[in-house]
Write a structure and sequence with these properties.
single chain, 29% helix, 5 helices, alpha/beta, 7-stranded mixed β-sheet, 213 residues, binds zinc ion
């Protein structure tokens, strides 16, 4: 009996020290998905006024923890090695295993949406959502992650929610998912026409050709 108690305690301590848990929101730390170190971290001030929603397109949807970890690793490899960026571009990934994966996190400048990288949280909902919607449980994790960001002062309470396609020429986050996020709290049809942030890394992410991610 004591051993069972000990095992359960260890489990909960593990959950609370490695990747904290807020109600049933699980945020997976970089160590847990065995992220490579970033080449460089640019601090980003909080709270940020924007949340930008993406899909991964490739890799496709993941269901198991193992597959979602592999998806995060493959995106990081692609962004660091092929695109030449400092790290995986997104602030967070959300998998079909219903866990949120820490990418650049709450307080580092991202590489996911030109002109918005230094004032937004970019969330990649892993999968191709052109025709299909993500499962409801996966979308619920995105909403909980945003709520948690607001509660902890990382995202402004009056934040503006955008799909990636609203800020550059891309199909991201997929037609089906884009129609869905239009119904979410804080979505705005027209991003304000304000100052442009030009950084070399962001320019890499702002090519003229149309994109799907
Ligand atoms: Zn995108």
């Amino acid at each position: 009996m004591f051993n069972i108690f000990l095992a359960l305690s260890t489990y909960f301590i593990f959950r609370h020290t490695k990747g904290y848990s807020v109600s049933d929101l699980v945020i997976v730390s970089r160590e847990e998905w065995q992220a490579r170190p970033p080449k460089l971290v640019e601090p980003m001030p909080n709270p940020v006024p924007y949340v930008i929603i993406h899909h991964s397109y490739i890799p496709g949807a993941c269901v198991t923890q193992e597959a979602c970890v592999q998806a995060m690793q493959s995106m990081q490899r692609y962004h660091q090695d092929e695109r030449g960026w400092n790290d995986i571009g997104y602030s967070f990934g959300v998998g079909g295993d219903n866990r949120a994966y820490t990418g650049r996190g709450w307080s580092a400048v991202g590489a996911h949406a030109p002109n918005y990288n230094n004032r937004s949280i970019g969330i990649c909902v892993i999968g191709d959502w052109t025709v299909q919607l993500p499962p409801q449980s996966q979308m619920d994790v995105v909403k909980k992650l945003i709520d948690y960001g607001v509660q902890t002062g990382k995202i402004a309470p009056n934040y503006m929610l955008l799909g990636h396609r609203q800020v550059r020429d891309t199909e991201c986050p997929g037609n089906a998912f884009y129609e869905e996020i239009k119904k979410w709290p804080h979505w705005i049809p027209n991003p304000p026409n304000d100052s442009v942030d030009q950084r070399p890394e962001q320019n890499l992410n702002s090519g003229a050709s149309a994109s799907i991610i």
